[in-house]
Amino acid sequence: MKPKVSENLNPQLSAAAPEKDPKDTEENKDDEEQEKSTCCDRVPYASVGDALFSSLVVAPLVVSVWRGTWGLMEQHRALFPYAQIFAMGILIHVAFSFIKTRLFARSQNAWQHGAGHWLWERFVSKLYTYIFVLACIMHWRGGWGIFDGVVDAVIPNMDDPHSYISSSIFKESSCSTLFPGRARQKCVEALLV
Length: 193
Fold this sequence. Notes:
- The protein is mainly α.
- Among the domains are: 82-154; 157-193, no CATH class.
- It is 73% helix and 0% strand.
- It is built from six helices and no strands.
- Helix 3 packs antiparallel against helix 4 (115-154) and helix 5 runs antiparallel to helix 6.
- Residues 1-38 are annotated as: Disordered.
- Pfam families: Fuseless.
- Keywords: Membrane, Transmembrane, Transmembrane helix.
- The chain crosses the membrane at residues 51-73, 79-99.
């Protein structure tokens, strides 16, 4: 959406601004009419349809993609070690944050260059989306895998006779990190009971 002519984007120049041209007020009217025509209030049931579509179609598909990809990574653990996929997910996110504006600018007017260019841009868009989804899942799975490994290392097997001591130390350190002062003592007392 273009900025409105009536908006003063630089307050320092407002005092030195020349008188408004009648043409500017016509543009303002056009902007106001465009805002009114694109307002979502004119279709009162659109939000209900959006909510139903999101809940019944989009959400199950998103869950299916996440669960399916996560499950494939679980079946082939040797190919997807936690630390490597965590780092790879971060790298892909950073790289995509740098190139996304370039990709979006390329595909903005793709249809004007012909059907072949439009098809290529659609393919690149789908590939970008697929790689981004994989990066998100790798990042989350890697992070949770690393967290599980740390917890397993800190809290040993409960059949071990020394597990009470090490779990108490872990609980006390968790309480001291999360709660200050008197709340820390109450937290430790509650966990050690």
